[in-house]
Amino acid sequence: MRDFADSVAKLCIEKYNSLKKTGKPTTHEWTVLSGIIQKDSDGSLFLVALATGTKCLGELELINNSAEERGSRLSDSHAEVLTRRAFMCYLYDQIDLTLSGSDNAIFKRDKNKIELNSSVSFHFFSSQTPCGDCSIFPKEAISDDMPPSKIRKLNEDINGYIIAESPYKDIYRTGAKCVKTEQIQDPHLPGMNYHIVGPLRTKPGRGDPTNSLSCSDKIAKWLILGLQGSFLSLLIPPIKLESITIGVDCPFSLDAMERGLYKRFNNKVDRPKILQAKLSFVHKRGEERLHPCPTSIIWFAGRNSALEVAVAGRKQGVTRKKKGNNLLTSRRMLLQTFLQVLDKYQNYYSEIRHPKKITYYDWKQWSTIYQNKWKQLKLGTFHNWPCKPMNLQNFTL
Question: Could you tell me if 276 and 125 are in contact, meaning their C-beta atoms sit under 8 angstroms apart?
Answer without folding.
Answer: no
